[in-house]
Amino acid sequence: MDDPSDPGRPRQADLQTPFAQVPIEITISVGRARPLVRDLLRLGPESVLPLDRRVDDPVELYVGDRLIGRGELEELDGDRAGQLAVRLTELASIKDSL
Fold first, then answer.
1. Which among 59, 64, 60, 68 is positioned nearest to 92, based on CA atoms?
2. What is the CA radius of gyration of the chain?
């Protein structure tokens, strides 16, 4: 049932539109690297490229170039052990972004 007190949650009618079944790609950004070109040319197998973030820092979720939320990386258990996932901690209002 819809929670009218949660303005960010889609209404049931919104979930029944033809577009509700269209898949989208969400890109998860864990950080950025800014090496010099000379350092980039020296990269090879086993090279380490430091990022501007720490392991426990939030990751950002994008649809195209639009930030839609933030979350924390997690590793799944069970038959999906080792697979990465994102636990959402903050969502932008997607309707306002479209």
1. 68
2. 18
Range of the domain at 81: 14-42+51-97
pLDDT tens digits along 36-88: 999 999 999 999 999 999 999 999 999 999 999 999 999 999 999 999 999 99
Tell whether 7 is covered by a domain: no
Cα angle at 96 between 5 and 21, to 5 degrees? 85
Contacts with 52 (C-beta within 8 Å, 6 or more apart), sequence order? 31, 32, 33, 34
DSSP state of 4: T
Q: How confident is the model at residue 9 (pLDDT cuts 50, 70, 90)?
A: low
Give a yes or no: residue 71 inside a domain: yes
Instruction: Say how many domains are in the chain.
Output: 1
Token pair for 36: 């010099």
What beta strand segments (E) does the chain contain?
27-29, 59-63, 66-75, 84-91
